[in-house]
């Protein structure tokens, strides 16, 4: 499930013209998505147990 979220996020971000260089690390202690937004670097941490929030 966590991988699905990263795949969906990557697809959504990839459609945005100002977003580039999308990378993610799902195996990190805190999964992280990194990308550039309009030339600036962004690190987007994710909750590890995302399934707990899916009600």
TrEMBL record:
InterPro entries (alphabetical): NT_sf (IPR043519)
Q: Which domain of life is it from?
A: Eukaryota
What is the protein named?
Answer: Nuclear poly(A) polymerase 3
